[in-house]
Amino acid sequence: MHVIKNIDHHKYKQYSVEELLQDDYFIHSKANPSKESERFWTEALRQKNVSRGNYDQACYIIDSLQTRTDIIPSDEIDLLWDDIKKINRQIERRKKNRKKKRILMWTLGNIAVVLLLFFIYGKLTTGDTKNQPNDTMPHSIETVKAPKDPVDEIQIILANEEVVAVDGAEADIMHDHEGVAINNQDKMLIKKQTELPGIIYHQLIVPKGKRSMLTFEDGSKMWVNAGTRIVYPANFTEDKREIYVDGEAYLEVSVDKTRPFIVKSKKFSVNVLGTSFNIMAYENDTNQHIVLISGSVRVHSRDNAETVLSPNEMYISENGNSHVEKVNVEYFTSWKTGMYQYKSERLEVIMKRLSRYYGKDISCMPEVAHLKCSGKLDLKDDLNSVLRGISHTAPVNYQFDNDKYLIIHK
What we know:
Layout: H1 17-21, H2 24-31, H3 35-46, H4 52-65, H5 74-97, H6 102-124, E1 154-157, E2 163-166, E3 170-176, E4 179-184, E5 187-192, E6 201-206, E7 211-215, E8 221-224, E9 228-233, E10 241-252, E11 261-264, E12 268-272, E13 276-281, E14 287-294, E15 297-301, E16 306-309, E17 313-318, E18 321-326, H7 330-333, E19 339-346, H8 347-358, E20 361-364, H9 366-369, E21 372-378, H10 383-393, E22 396-401, E23 404-409
Parallel strand pairs: 3-7, 10-11, 20-23
Antiparallel strand pairs: 1-2, 1-6, 3-4, 4-5, 6-9, 7-8, 8-10, 9-10, 10-13, 11-12, 12-15, 13-14, 14-17, 15-16, 17-18, 19-21, 22-23
Helix pairs in contact: 2-5, 5-6
């Protein structure tokens, strides 16, 4: 505790706003006001030993930062004030020992105080921490963090971090402004919406070997393939409908000319009004693409290049390069009905897709990885039947050991 008799009014006569914000006693008296400190500053102002304008401005900054201190533990606030005071003392010592660097140290002092004040301000304005499990809500849809550990079941992670696990290989999920309804294995589970401030985001996690269908509040439908994470808001905003995809999904977007539907991924974003298309954008894959079935979409790459697609066109992004080509869309959308068609596709790519779809570890020996194959697989069959079918059309066999499949040359 500072003692008034040790403080001289006159020391503040030439103090600027920055100097007041670096003064131990000023900080302490504003953080923990008392009758004694109030009398001190009233007398200093009366005797004009402190500039009224500078004093009022410094008080305004402090008061602005303290308008919502109830959401931060008092001991944390005290620590922040202590940090400011420690920096002030270090600066003063350096000023005395290094007079030649006075201007530099003065600047650093101001920067340090401003940074700390902005840090406090950020803490004070993040909202009610009782409703924020991670102290702050995500600022954008891309910043929503994925689960740290892989999961074995379909999961919905609600904005309040409640996890809803779904049994079975498939799930039909509907989301509207009231909450989430999950229909699987003839059972219905309803989770009411949690009221949280600002835009809040849910996640749908579909692990390898599973699939799901998600219907949004506007009626847009999404078929979600294995190994995919979808981030979407609890409620679409008035000016846009925005989701994030890490994986593969087929979308049928409801028309709403006032609210474009935006699908974001790590490498690009897709802007649509009402259309159907397939997006494959696994974050860890070098090859990502968008196939347009109907309507029109605009693809924006991370370098702000824009590409407009027409039906039966595919936008391909691979190793930093992109191009558009005509395709048979059936090859890229049949997975949603349980079929997999491919033409002149590398065997390693086929096995990677089967690995995700069935949730099994499948790898290729180098000598067969680049073999080109064409065919049609029924994904409703078990994996062993599918691999036997491939071995009848390509010079390969497969081995199974320790729950892993290895494709070898026949």
